[in-house]
Amino acid sequence: MSLYPAPSPRHAEPTIQPSYFTSSLYTEALREDISDLVAEFQEQYTANASEAPFSVFKRTWRAQKWHLLQLRVFDDRTPSWDIKTSHDLEKTKTCEPLFTRATTLLALYTFYSTQPLETIPAIWHLKHIPIPIDHLRDLQTIADSLDTSDFASLRRPAAYVLRFLREGNVFLILPNSNLHPENPRSLPRETYLDHGRIASADAPATKKKGRPTKNDKTRKMKSAMHNLEGWLDKTRPFVELPPPAVGTSASASAAPKVEGYKLIKAELLDLMATEGPGSEGHAAILKANEFILQRLKEVREVVPHDDDSVEDSSSAGIGRVELAVEDLERGLNRGVLDLLEGSGKR
C-alpha cells in the first residue's frame, strides 16, 4: 500500500491515494473517534436528562468537529464517506450495546442529511447508503428496543430517523452479510505495518556483557540436564537386559545392569586399542577424563553443597575422580572408566 500523494499536474494540490481510506491508518482511527463520540454523548445525555436528546447529540457532534469531515472530499477518487457510513452501520448491529446502536443511528442520519450539495467547487456526496439486508433488519429494531430500556427518550428520534431513511429510499439493499457483498468486503482492507517495529522485534536479543552470574550458570546447567534426560529417554539401550524377577532385592536387580555396563565398556576399549600410553586410544581416554573432571568442577561451583567433608574425601566425589585421572596419567589404569575396578581409591 502506497501512502504517498498520487501524481498530479504541476502546481496542483496533491491527492491522497484512495487506498488510504480503506487502510488501518484511517479505519482504526475512525473507529476510535466513533467510540469517543458515543462515550461523550452518553455522558452529556445523562447530565442533561431534561433536554431533548437530539439537541444534546447535535451539540456533541459539533463540539467534536464531525461536521468538518464532509469538507475533506472534493472528488470521487477518495470517497471516505462510504467508509464513515460503513463504520456507523457496524455499530448498529445487535451485538453492540443498545445506546451505542442508537447513537450511531443518529450519527448516520446527521452525516447523511447534512451533506453540502450546492457548493463551488462541487463536493462529492453520497446518494445511497449500501447495507446488507440482515443489517437493515437489525437497524429497524432499534426504536422498539429503546421503548423498553433505560433510554426511552431516544425512541422518538430513532423512530423519526428510521422513517426518514426508509421514505427517502436512502438505503441500497445488498444481499446477506455472510455473502460479503460490500466493497471492500471487510475493513481495514490494507493493514499498515511499521517496518521499524518489525525490525526491532526480529532483532536478536543482545548478549549481556561480563562474566555470567551464578544464576545464569544454574539455568544453563538445568537446561543442559533437561536436554540430556530427554536424549536418554529417546535413546535405546545398547544391551537389552531382562526385567528383574519378582521378589529380588535392589542390589540383585542392579547386578545385571553393572555387568552389561562392563561388557559394553570392554567392547569399547577393545575397539579403541588402548594398549600403550602413546596410542590414539589412550590420548582419547585421557582427554575424556580431563573433560569429565572439568565439568564436575564447574557443576560444583554452580550448585551449592552443604557437606564438604564428603566431597573432599578420597573415596567419593570430585576427589576420587581427580585421583583416578592421576592414576591414568601414571599408566596404572584407565581413570574414570575403571572406577568400578577401584580406580582413584587410596
TrEMBL record:
Pfam families: SNAPC1
Region (Disordered): 200-221
Highest taxon, organism lineage: Eukaryota
InterPro entries named among the record's database cross-references: SNAPC1
This protein's name: Uncharacterized protein
Highest classification ranks of the organism: Eukaryota, Fungi, Dikarya, Basidiomycota, Agaricomycotina
